[in-house]
Amino acid sequence: QVQLVESGGGLVQAGGSLRLSCAASGKVSDIDSMGWYRQPPGKRRESVASHTKDGIVNYELSVKGRFTISWDKGKSMVYLQMNSLKPEDTAVYYCNANWWTYDFWGQGTQVTVSS
Fold this sequence. Notes:
seven-stranded mixed β-sheet; globular
């Protein structure tokens, strides 16, 4: 089992920045990849960024060049640095950890970008 706790969400003006943090605990050594997802109001949850244990990073097209995911394995922390935020980035952001066929989720943190 892996437990995830996100923090760092909030209200920011368009063009601003936020950094989300995710603290992982439990069997963190088993984790194959970690990532961030988001669910805008009235829409489905979507992948934003992912980071494999081998260092492969992927981003959803709309956030490329603006968001950066990083994984500090020593501290069992995953971060999402979000720059040049847009109103369409407004969503609940979830931390995800994947091990084999299992997915673990945090409780989510709200990010609201005002225009």
